[in-house]
Amino acid sequence: MDGYRTVLVGTDGSESSLRAVGRAGSIAADTDAKLIIATGYLRHEDDRRAADALKDDAYMVQGNAPIYAVLRDAHARAAAAGAKNVEERSIEDAPVHALVQLAEDVKADLLVVGNVGLNARRAILGRLFSVAGAVSTRAKSDVLIVHTTD
Fold it and tell me: Deepest in the core among 83, 84, 141, 144, taking most CB within 10 A?
């Protein structure tokens, strides 16, 4: 393989996930690949438990407008890293399923996720749920788990 042609990166708007977007942007720039930035989300508009658990970050999982703000911020981060051909996708589905399915649909060569991020499902359910771990076992493409903590 000469290099990646399509790179898919997942983001939830957290600083941690934006670091993964930056890394994916650099990889896309280095290989002249298309970069697809995606966020999978579930609506929790009527679920007060999500807002209580996420506190100041609850806006990231409520309604549609925050999804577009998350994607806009991620697009800017990817462009700053050098990515030129960037698409944005929002998918109303659980993040793991959304990313794995989208990777297959767009024939992504590389799926990039951060090792830590805002995860409303984990906060709501009160159990360990790793998007990175689940994606790495389910994806059919290469997966890069970016170490995004200091």
Answer: 83
Q: Are 7 and 35 in contact (CB under 8 A)?
A: yes
List, in sequence order, every residue forming a beta bridge with 8; answer none if it has no partner: 36, 111
Give, rounded to a whole angstrom, the gap between the first and last alpha carbons of the chain. Answer: 32
The tokens describing 91, both together, are 């998918």
Q: Report the DSSP pairing between strands 6-10 and 142-146.
A: unpaired
Q: How many C-alpha atoms does 102 have within 13 Å on its Cβ side? A: 28
Q: Which long-range contacts (CB under 8 A, 24 or more apart) does 61-69 make?
A: 61/118, 61/120, 66/13, 67/39, 67/41, 69/13
Report d(CA 63, CA 120) in Å as an integer: 14
Q: What is the pTM of this model?
A: 0.78
Sequence-separated (6 or more) residues with CB below 8 Å from residue 137: none
Rounded distance between C-alpha atoms, residue 81 and residue 62, angstroms: 28
Query: Three-state DSSP class for 72?
Result: helix
The continuous run of DSSP H or E covering 109 comes out as none
